[in-house]
Ribonuclease A-domain domain-containing protein
Amino acid sequence: MLKILFLVSLALLAASHIQSVKSSSSGGSDAGVQKPCARLFHPETGEQLELPSLPEKKKKLLGGAAAGSEGAFSFSSFTVMDGCLLSLWVAGSQEWGLESRSFPSGAYLNQLPGAGVSLTSYQCTCDQENKVMASFRDFKKRHIAGRNENGSGNFCTRKIRHRHIYLNGRCKYLNTFVFADDNDVINVCRNQGYPISNNLYKSRNQFRIVDCKNANQNRRPPNCTYTAQNANAWLYIVVACDNNMLPVHFEGSSNRPPVFGITGRL
Ligand SMILES: *[C@@H]1O[C@H](CO)[C@@H](O)[C@H](O)[C@H]1NC(C)=O
Ligand SMILES: *[C@@H]1O[C@H](CO)[C@@H](O)[C@H](O)[C@H]1NC(C)=O
């Protein structure tokens, strides 16, 4: 599905939270031993770098060393474990265009040629131990739809039934879908959005959305029907972010861009 192409070199300074292990690791799952959140694979040696789950804060990995310098760990692929989300922060990448990318559980290939991309930090969280991930998954279920999908009444009715989106056992009055990749929405909480109050962030760019409005108050789940408003309109979105990291609530949309500059975050 998602095949993200990039190259990252990772310097193993300040490696207190990181263990480099051989691929033939014993695999003994002693109770109490934390399972890894993600594994990075070295292209030639087969060496693995295990990233632990760090629910609170991203870990600074690179203490100013250049990519490819001694002690750097190059990797050709990586795996994010079930129920986990890995976010990587990079410096010097034209290709990424953004400071960070997030990768849900799955296997990823690292194919971009050339040097110049350095991984500066990461955060890896697993939902078993993290409420934020669960909230994000609920947000995603309610509000993120595929880029190729098309907002319409039929779409709304079908999607809301398929995803079982209800409110207190009733048909939800209004539910907005954003047609975008997870990362584009996630980044509204990071460098692609501006804080407008508390934990609310408004997107820097417009997103294609659809507002699904309940068409018949008398119906009960799962038979809710919906009409589409603002179908496929490009609007700025406002989301609530948990700890500036992940969207957990959809606040609304607007045709007005965020006011730039006043937050000092430019
Ligand atoms: C989306 O719907 C509009 C209006 O019905 C239609 O013109 C357009 O071709 C559709 N796009 C896709 C990708 O299905
Ligand atoms: C949903 O619709 C079906 C088919 O019309 C009907 O049999 C069922 O009773 C309805 N359920 C509710 C909760 O209204």
In short: The longest strand covers residues 226-242. The two ends are 33 Å apart (CA to CA). The chain has three helices and 17 strands.
